[in-house]
């Protein structure tokens, strides 16, 4: 199903102290895509208010009316808009799989601004069995797997690194500009993490465990990494076996580990009758967290049980304390899942 910025970006405002929802006015809409299966996966801002977005384009795909050719059936893209949401530039990257396949994996999945290096850090997947995937002059990868690349604010690639066979799921940048990218080997079901310096030098690689799927991460101020993801039957995290509740396919999980990814500092698992997941994680200034995702049937909490229609995904938004215990939780009557929730401050009100 096609997803574009025209139809995929919703802003949900819910006061963190249950303030009334205020009416919102649409200020801009940008369309990404053409007649094929195009996707916007992630966006970020730099300190000047410029917006960067990433995703994938099919043949003849457009970014705000600018058309790009595609190598193979799909290319990833990185685009920049200024603070007034005026198009500045876009670049594409991708290889060609022969014979052609509509499932070609050339895509940008996560993008962040690194305040230490001043670069735009992009992570995603690449695939090629022909002439290589070109990210910039002299920046070419062959084969397939996860990539991490640093771009300047003019869209020129400064460096690119890869993990063959892997795929980027999420990325965080700590106060020193170090880059942590978490990935997943689809065929072996193992998750891993790679740490890079602000200049793109690989500092270490760690195997995290099995079934680390749909994870989201933040770097905490106290020198730890916090994460949410779906725990399945057989999930392990840094040597610890984490089992979902009896009869459940998956459970939402919050965990913390040290920044060397060698010690699990604790985790909190929520029970479900069917399945549940957290997809997004953001940290507030007081050390608490905002997370979002979805569940089916019952989601069991320490102080409540939420009931959804059987077999229907129920969106959920929650605030967690520093240990991952829910402070409040809001579900919505819709057959959907919330994939992103961003804390914000509008006119002095704390909002999500």
Provide keyphrases for this structure:
mainly beta, 1 helix, disordered C terminus, 29 strands, four-stranded antiparallel sheet, globular, 352 residues, single chain, disordered N terminus, 54% strand
Explained architecture:
The protein is mostly beta strands. The chain has 2 domains: 31-210, no CATH class; 214-352, no CATH class. Helix content is 1%, strand content 54%. It is built from 1 helix and 29 strands. It has one helix at residues 5-8, and strands at residues 39-45, 51-58, 62-63, 66-67, 74-81, 87-93, 107-114, 119-136, 139-151, 157-164, 168-173, 179-185, 190-196, 202-210, 213-219, 224-232, 235-237, 240-242, 250-258, 264-269, 271-272, 276-283, 289-295, 298-300, 305-307, 314-320, 326-331, 344-346, 349-351. The chain has a 4-stranded antiparallel sheet with strand order 1-2-5-6, with no helix packed on it. Strands 7-8-9-10 form a 4-stranded antiparallel sheet, with no helix packed on it. Strands 11-12-13-14 form a 4-stranded antiparallel sheet, with no helix packed on it. The longest helix has 4 residues, at 5-8. It is globular and about 55 Å long. The two termini are 27 Å apart. The model is unreliable at 1-21 and 345-351 (pLDDT under 50).
Major sheet: order of its strands?
Answer: 1-2-5-6
- Helical region count? 1
- Total number of distinct structural domains: 2
- Element string (H = helix, E = strand): HEEEEEEEEEEEEEEEEEEEEEEEEEEEEE
Globally, the shape reads globular
The residue-averaged pLDDT reads: 82
Rg, rounded, reads 20 Å
Strand content: over 45%
Helix content: under 10%
**Oligomer type:** single chain
Task: Report the uncertain regions.
Answer: 1-21, 345-351
Derived from helix and strand composition plus strand pairing, the structural class reads mainly beta
Got a strand count? 29
Intertermini distance: 27 Å
- How many strands, which pairing sense, and closed or not: the largest β-sheet? 4 strands, antiparallel
């Amino acid at each position: 199903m096609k997803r574009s910025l025209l139809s995929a970006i919703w802003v949900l405002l819910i006061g963190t102290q249950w303030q009334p929802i205020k009416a919102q006015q649409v200020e801009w809409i940008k369309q990404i895509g053409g007649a094929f299966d195009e996707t916007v996966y992630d966006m970020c801002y730099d300190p000047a208010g410029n917006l960067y977005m990433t995703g994938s384009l099919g043949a003849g795909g457009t970014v705000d009316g600018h058309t790009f050719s595609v190598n193979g059936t799909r290319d990833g893209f990185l685009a920049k808009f200024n603070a007034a949401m005026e198009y500045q530039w876009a670049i594409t990257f991708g290889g060609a799989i022969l014979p052609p396949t509509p499932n070609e994996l050339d895509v940008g999945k996560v993008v962040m601004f690194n305040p230490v290096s001043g670069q735009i850090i992009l992570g995603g997947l690449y695939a090629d069995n022909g002439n290589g995937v070109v990210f910039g002059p002299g920046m070419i990868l062959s084969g397939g797997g996860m990539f991490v690349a640093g771009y300047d604010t003019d869209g020129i690639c400064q460096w690119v690194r890869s993990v063959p066979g892997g795929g980027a799921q999420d990325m965080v940048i700590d106060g020193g500009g170090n880059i942590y990218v978490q990935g997943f080997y689809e065929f072996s079901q193992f998750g891993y993490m790679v740490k890079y310096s602000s200049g793109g030098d690989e500092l270490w690689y760690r195997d995290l465990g099995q079934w680390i799927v749909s994870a989201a991460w933040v770097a905490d101020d106290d020198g730890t990494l916090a994460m949410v993801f779906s725990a399945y039957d057989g999930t392990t995290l840094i040597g610890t076996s984490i089992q979902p509740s009896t009869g459940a396919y998956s459970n939402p999980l919050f965990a913390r580990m040290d920044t060397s990814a060698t010690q699990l500092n604790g985790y909190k698992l929520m029970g479900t009758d069917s399945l549940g997941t957290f997809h997004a994680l953001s940290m507030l200034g007081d050390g608490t967290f905002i997370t979002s995702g979805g569940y089916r049937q019952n989601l069991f909490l320490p102080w409540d049980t939420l009931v959804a229609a059987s077999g229907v995904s129920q969106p959920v938004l929650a605030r967690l304390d520093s240990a991952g215990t829910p402070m409040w939780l809001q579900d919505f009557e819709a057959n959907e899942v919330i994939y992103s929730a961003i804390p914000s401050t509008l006119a002095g009100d704390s909002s999500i």
